[in-house]
Amino acid sequence: MVADRKIIDQVSGWLTVYDDGFVDRSWTGPPQFKFMSDPVPPHHHFIDGVATHDLLINSKSGLHARVYLPEVPETGKLPILLHFHGGGFCISQPDWYMYYNIYTRIAREAGAIVVSPFLRLAPEHRLPAALDDGYSTLLWLRDVANDETYDSGLSTKGDFNRVFLIGDSSGGNIVHQVAKKAAEENLHPVRLAGAIPIHPGFVRSVRSKSELEKPQSPMLTLDMLDKFLSMGLPEGSTKDGPITCPMGEELQGVELPPYLLCVAEEDLVIDTEMEFYEGMKKDGKKIELLVSEGVGHSFYLNKIAIDIDPITSQQTSKMIQAISHFVANH
Fold it and tell me: Is 127 exposed, middle or buried, given 0-12, 13-18 or 19+ CB atoms closer than 10 A?
């Protein structure tokens, strides 16, 4: 009986786990924030210069994706941004309003097609499920490029020589893992032109200085960080595993694309993100750094803050400009 269910874990506002295995992802925080997690239906007509549609990638697994297509002149092909959403591997979807709001802007301003898979979520599907879904979507893009499958927007407008991996928070972790795996695969005619991890969840079991001293925010608290990873990481693994702790790993001989690492000055995990950045530079990898000043983790997803706080609004615009510039130059 539903009435006999007992709560065995919660992540404030975002997720409730019951003893029978049921997971409730209904927003239970302040009601004024609920709209940000409401799904936006696809619309094949252009609204503010962007159309969206959902498509099935794999009928056996049920993997599907949201596509954001900008309205641009008919001439020329458009770069493709393969986006992995955040949420600690446990929550969020690419059709949530918070993603719709930011990725319609990126698609429009960068003049790029955005493809965002609906990743399987933990705790029902622990890692590497989301990593596998991300990589499967990249292989599906290769099938589209080879005319083995068809999507009206991608097949006619996509430039498969300019595919970029982009993801925020835990999606940034997926960006790095997919980029490493892609280095071992023949993706022709797809070429990975760049990787853009935004506020990736790089951590250790031992708290960093920034985790101890930086302010917690609605987008990331220490409780969220710990609980999401305890639910999402493979059974028996810790934060010190390669998915969440790639700092200092051996990358010699791994042909990674150029990176644009986006960090936020007030992010709880900025110290370990910067350690990753220094390690990539030491290994001779091409990596650029964007630091958003005066803001915290995933600030650009908070539509309310964008509307009422000039710093959040300004830093969001700067980040989108930096992403657009990176895409245009690779």
Answer: buried
